[in-house]
Design brief:
5-stranded antiparallel beta sheet, 2 helices, elongated, Immunoglobulin-like, about 170 residues, alpha+beta, 6-stranded mixed beta sheet
Length: about 170
């Protein structure tokens, strides 16, 4: 076999390219680390940052929900009456913008009254002694995107901002 012509490859170092490439790699590593940390913390659903709660002082209720939900994945919104209320009955309403994104599948305990109106849906419950108790709404997001709506507990309104991931 005959020897071929000498191949002269130009393999010079390119410090400028190597420096730029090192910067790109560092940025990508930071972005990936933030993505993983956000996922572990609940930024994509189910995690410590995903849960939110608010106290409604006039109705003596604590509302808990998930800020970040996954489309067609079960979740819950709970309302706990921690202080004695004026009545053992509780009325909880969800407005239409929230119900456009999130479907209520069941309630625990079962609602004594369920009615729909043009503005949303209303659920009535008989609470325990002193008006104390907990109501859990099993929900399933049905539409991706921001679900900005509100829940009203015994006349006291609370905005709920839920982001539904696809």
């Amino acid at each position: 076999m005959a020897a071929g012509p000498d191949l002269d490859l130009d393999l010079n170092d390119s410090p400028r390219f190597e420096d730029d490439w090192a910067k790109v790699k560092a940025v990508l590593i930071v972005v990936l680390a933030l993505f993983v940390a956000g996922g572990l913390a609940g930024g994509f659903g189910r995690g410590p940052l995903s849960r939110a709660s608010a106290q409604l002082p006039a109705s003596g209720a604590q509302v808990s929900w998930e800020r970040f939900a996954r489309n067609h994945t079960a979740g819950e919104i709970s309302v706990e009456f921690t202080s004695p209320g004026p009545s053992p009955a509780a009325e909880i309403a969800f407005d239409r913008p929230l119900l456009d994104h999130v479907k209520i599948t069941t309630t625990q305990p079962r609602a004594a009254i369920e009615r729909a109106n043009g503005a949303g849906a209303v659920y009535g419950f008989q609470m325990g002694p002193g008006g104390r108790g907990k109501v859990v709404f099993s929900v399933e997001p049905s539409k991706s995107g921001p679900a900005d709506g509100a829940i009203t507990v015994n006349g006291e309104r609370l905005p709920l901002n839920i982001f539904v991931w696809p």
